[in-house]
Give the backbone structure.
Amino acid sequence: MNMHVNRPELAVDSIPLQLAAQERRAEKTRQRVCKLREKAFEEIERLIAFLDASDGYSMDEREEAVDDIPCDDRELSGISTYGTELMV
């Protein structure tokens, strides 16, 4: 079976005009993306500076680990909650 597809004839000048319009839109899109990236970078830098300024403790002091402070007398005496001695 032989099927022929009829395509509309395109004028020679219409393709370059369409491609030129597409290229202009693509360039504008690239410029918008570039500006958005710059704004995002600036915002990230601003937020990092804010966090650094608002939390000086984290840069100056070492936070206590979970096991640094005994939670009750049993932990101090070396007796587990089950009544057996902890291995030290």
Notes: The longest helix spans residues 14-54. Residues 30 and 53 are 34 Å apart (CA to CA). Helices lie at 14-54, 57-60, 73-77. The chain has a mean pLDDT of 75.
